[in-house]
Design a protein that fits this description.
The chain has 491 residues and is of the alpha/beta class. It has three domains: 165 residues, Rossmann fold; 163 residues, 3-Layer(aba) Sandwich (Rossmann fold); 103 residues, GMP Synthetase, Chain A, domain 3 (2-Layer Sandwich), CATH 3.30.300. It is 26% helix and 28% strand. It is built from eleven helices and 26 strands. Strands 2-1-10-9-11-12-13-14-15 form a nine-stranded mixed β-sheet. It has a six-stranded mixed β-sheet with strand order 6-5-3-4-7-8, sandwiched between helices. The termini are far apart.
Length: 491
Amino acid sequence: MSSTSPATPDTLRALLAARAERSGDATYLLAARTSRSLTYLRLAEAAEHWQRVVAPWGRSVRVGLLVSDPLDFAEAFLGLISAGVWVAPLDPTANPLNPDTVRRWTSTLGLSHVIADRHGPSPLDVSWHHVDDDTSVNDIAPAASGGVLLASSGTTGAPKVMALSEAQLLVAAGLIARHNRLDEHERGFNPLPLWHINAEVVGLLATLVAGASLVLDERFHRTRFWDVIREHHVTWINAVPAIIARLADVGEDERVPSGVRFIRSASAPLSAALLTRFETATGIRVVESYGMTEAASQICVNPLSGGRRPGSVGRGVGVEVRVVDGEVVAPGTVGQVEIRGPSVIDHYESPAYAERFSEGGWLATGDLGYLDTDGFLYLVGRTDDVINRGGEKIFPREIEEVALEVPGVAGAAVVGVSDEVFGELPVLFVEIDDDVHGTIAHLHEVLVEGLTRVRRPVEIRVVEALPRHATGKIQKRGLRGAIVTHVEALQ
């Protein structure tokens, strides 16, 4: 693919200039539900504007970006990084936006400026700028290296702050563009939040590296979804399992376009049952992947055609993957998943979590899994999710996969609850589309038949909606306080 050849510039500023010269008036971004669009030339001009805006702020300054509109976000995000700024994308759905929220952002991420599409709350101890402000100087900021700053909560409550350099972002974007066979003729569709690493790298940057185009939606809309895909001539879709589940039920009045090569699944485990149901209903291939912020998004991914392994998240692409239990274990043996590579961080910006890095540059992901003899990775759960039932280790995913095979079960999550005799017992939380009693009866039978007694959940608890992150990942901590509408005992 010529657009992702080794000659591709290795800085974002140079890449934007090259794309403007080569692609000019070609479309880079389109808004899914309006007539707005952004050409490569306009993107380069916007980047030059941001370079002038930040010139007086100093080198490698840390700036928060709080912008809801996808195209406005993309202009500022790419322009700021190309100017050598460290950009911290902030959640624009944060409500209420008050001084405490802003103070938490600035203290955690070390921000000195915030660029936003709204007025800041008072009082503030950070410099606040509106995204449309035209204050700039004549000189373009001197060359510097920036990147992305992101934070996620840790199991101890201390935030994990990650700094991904411009070079790491471009390495990951190039690997994704090549694997997905993107070129100037391809057009992606991204309904995922742009303040998350997936949409930033898999969506914005991989498209830019390839010289392709991308349709952005501010969020996922099920209504007229396939019409929008058809109208924009989309060839691939960036999604998560929660979206794939919604799209697997194709209405009688809907027509799935034939030009979509694949739908990419990331951010959360995808059940084999859901993958099959979606592909049967739509005729579109699902490409399951595995990634994390610490690796600038993608770690493993399945092939675009042929060679897929059911239940696997694929093989490492540009990232080394190993499984250890004190030492590297043999294929087929479950252990902790570790990674290293040019797109993987070698430390956290926050003081905690240094123990996750080991000699040789390996990072412990916190995931459990095993590799087969061909290097395909199979995930079984998180290290902190394993349920110890009287000495017997139970991986939640093995129960969740069985539950998701039952028609009507839209989501499933297993957590351990304390027990005086066994220490912990598994409880299954499910989302059910309709016919709760009929679905529960069927689910009861499937669990009894498909799982040994020790691995069987002691209860099924029905909730109206499983708590999910904006990317669709189920937040199991939130289940403990969830409102339960139905309880079924299994033992």
